[in-house]
Amino acid sequence: MSPQSRRLAGILLVILPTVIYGGVSILSLLIGDRAYTENELRQDLWRAGHAHAGVLLVLSLVALRYVDEANLSDLMKPVVRSTIPASAILLPAAFFLSVISPEATEPNGLI
C-alpha cells in the first residue's frame, strides 16, 4: 500500500468513530426529542444519511487497496483516492441538509 493510501486510510479510521457517534446521537434523539420522533421523514433521511456514511467509509477503505493496484496514471490515482471518500461525505450531507427544518414534510432540492 502506498504512503498516500496509508495516510488517507488512517484519516478514514479516525473519522469512522464520528459516524458511529452520530448514529448514537440519533438514538438519543429517538429517546428524548419529541419533535424528532413526530417527523418520520426526518427520521428516515437522517438514518439513511448515517447508514450511507458508514458503509461508504468502509468501502473507501477497501477501495484504497485497489487504487494502488489499478492501472491508473500518476495524476489519476490521487483523484480517485480522494473522490471515493468524498462521496462518503457528500451523499449523506444531501440526506441531512434536505430536511434541516424540524417541520419539513418533504425533502428540499438538495436531495
Explain the overall architecture:
The protein has about 110 residues and is an all-alpha fold. The chain has one domain (about 5-95). The protein has four helices and no strands. The protein has helices at about 5-30, 35-40, 40-70, 75-95. Helix 1 runs antiparallel to helix 3 (about 40-70), helix 1 (about 5-30) packs parallel to helix 4 and helix 3 runs antiparallel to helix 4. It is elongated and about 50 Å long. The protein starts with a helix and ends in a 14-residue tail after the last helix. The model has no long low-confidence stretch (mean pLDDT about 85).
Spell out the key features of this protein.
single chain, 0% strand, mainly alpha, 78% helix, 4 helices, 111 residues
- How many distinct helices? 4
Low-confidence stretches: none
Report the structural category: mainly alpha
Beta-strand percentage range: under 5%
Shape category: elongated
What oligomeric arrangement do these chains adopt? Answer: single chain
Number of strands: 0
Q: Mean pLDDT, rounded to whole units?
A: 86
- Helix and strand string, N-terminal first? HHHH
Alpha-carbon distance between the two ends: 35 Å
Helix content: over 70%
Query: What is the number of independent domains?
Result: 1
Radius of gyration: 17 Å
Largest sheet, described in full? Answer: none
